[in-house]
Design a protein that fits this description.
This protein has a single domain, classed as 2-Layer Sandwich (Nucleotidyltransferase, domain 5), CATH 3.30.420. α2 (about 55-70) crosses α5 and α3 packs across α4 (about 90-100). Helix content is about 45%, strand content about 15%. It is an alpha/beta fold. The termini are far apart. The longest helix is centred in the last third of the chain and has 24 residues, at about 135-160. It has a five-stranded mixed beta sheet.
Length: about 210
């Protein structure tokens, strides 16, 4: 897949297209992070790609390239408490909405990685696998992923029983082993998620 989804819009006269994506939706802990990015319409760099296709080192390098070249970018999040309160879909939508509202430059079109957004006066196009099709969404995916990874490294300092910098909060064997040993932590884990609920139910049943 090529990252040229924006091309026909530029050919129609659009000047500024903002892309949005999130990171951390499938994790069992921590916030969901979203980013919004507007890159120059003639911008290209081979490292800008779907963040899942890049190594951590490549993402870190791409992150610097994006913030140095973006016309505008913004990053926002929804907390664990908000995720548990509104569900992860709505929390992801809210994080994207917050990021978009922080963009400090006018734009003509909004592209998202398959997320409908409401309340904006510009057209919103949700694109399936948008981070592999649109350059601005790919850039947003990188900013969101790197920002959340950095947050995970900080979380590990606060919660040293959990190797959050390694598993990033996903339900890996390491993380599940930690949960078996220490149990979920309020304010860290997403208690509305089934794997976390299972530990709570087991605790109530046993004790």
């Amino acid at each position: 897949m090529s990252l040229d989804y924006e091309k026909p819009f530029y050919e129609k006269g659009y000047q500024y297209i903002v892309g949005l994506d999130e990171a951390g939706r499938g994790c069992l802990l921590g916030p969901v992070v979203a980013a919004a990015v507007i890159l120059p319409k003639d911008f290209y760099h081979p490292l800008i790609n779907d963040s899942k296709q890049l190594s951590e080192k490549q993402r870190e390098e791409a992150y610097k390239i994006i913030i140095e070249n973006a016309i505008s970018y913004a990053i926002a999040e929804c907390s664990v408490e908000e995720i548990d309160s509104m569900n992860i879909l709505e929390a992801s939508r809210e994080a994207m909405t917050r990021a978009l509202k922080k963009i400090d430059h006018a734009y003509d079109l909004i592209l998202t990685d398959y997320m409908k957004l409401y309340g904006f006066d510009k057209e919103v196009i949700p694109i399936a696998h948008g981070d592999a099709l649109a350059l601005n969404i790919a850039a947003a995916s990188i900013l969101a992923k790197v920002t959340r990874d950095h947050y995970c490294y900080e979380l590990e300092k606060q919660y040293p029983n959990f190797k959050i910098g390694t598993h990033k909060g996903y339900g890996t064997k390491l993380h599940m082993d930690e949960l078996n040993k220490f149990g979920p932590v309020k304010g860290l884990h997403r208690f509305s998620y089934k794997p976390i609920k299972a530990f709570l139910i087991e605790k109530v049943t046993l004790f």
